[in-house]
């Protein structure tokens, strides 16, 4: 098929506890592709390119995605609403709506909701090598 159209109403807003050893429950809508490190159903055959996934993630007030590294992939966080704190390799950045952060291979980052409202982000990950393409669904999903 030459296209994939999928919206919020088409996917579950899936709760993820203590993401990457973070704090609290965040919610992930796996809009396109698949991320096997999260217990969220996905569609691993969506992308023909080396993009693994695109998801919308909601971080309620006080929640945090824990420190995790990227090896052989890059990840983009784009803030849609709310206020977040991104720490990449020890450097701290405040991210407001319209701000994007690209975490490159070899880096580690964490992301927290530091505002007084929920934080909504779009997350996209791509790999460099086809062998690292995540195309196997989690058992039971």
TrEMBL record:
Q: Does the keyword Metal-binding apply?
A: yes
Report any Pfam family annotated for this entry.
Cupin_2
Is the keyword Metal-binding in the record?
A: yes
Protein origin, superkingdom: Bacteria
In Gene Ontology terms, what is one molecular function of this protein? metal ion binding
Family annotation (InterPro entries)? Cupin_2 (IPR013096), GPI/OXD (IPR051610), RmlC-like_jellyroll (IPR014710), RmlC_Cupin_sf (IPR011051)
Domain Cupin type-2 as annotated: residue spans? 57-124
Q: Which UniProt keywords apply?
A: Metal-binding
**Where exactly are the transmembrane stretches of this chain?**
none
Tell me the PANTHER family matching this sequence: CUPIN TYPE-2 DOMAIN-CONTAINING PROTEIN, OXALATE-BINDING PROTEIN
Q: Under which name does UniProt file this protein?
A: Cupin domain-containing protein
From what organism does this protein derive? Peribacillus cavernae
């Amino acid at each position: 098929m030459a296209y994939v159209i999928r919206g919020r109403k088409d996917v579950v807003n899936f709760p993820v506890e203590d993401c990457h050893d973070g704090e609290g429950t965040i919610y992930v809508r796996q809009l396109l592709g698949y991320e096997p490190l999260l217990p969220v159903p996905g569609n691993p055959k969506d992308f023909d390119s080396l993009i693994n996934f695109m998801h919308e993630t909601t971080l309620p007030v006080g929640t945090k995605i824990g420190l995790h590294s990227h090896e052989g992939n890059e990840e983009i966080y784009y803030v849609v609403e709310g206020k977040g704190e991104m720490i990449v390799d020890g450097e701290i950045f405040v991210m407001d709506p319209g701000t994007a952060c690209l975490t490159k291979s070899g880096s580690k980052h964490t992301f927290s909701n530091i505002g007084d409202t929920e934080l909504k982000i779009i997350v996209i990950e791509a790999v460099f090598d086809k062998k690292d393409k995540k195309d196997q669904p989690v058992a039971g999903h």
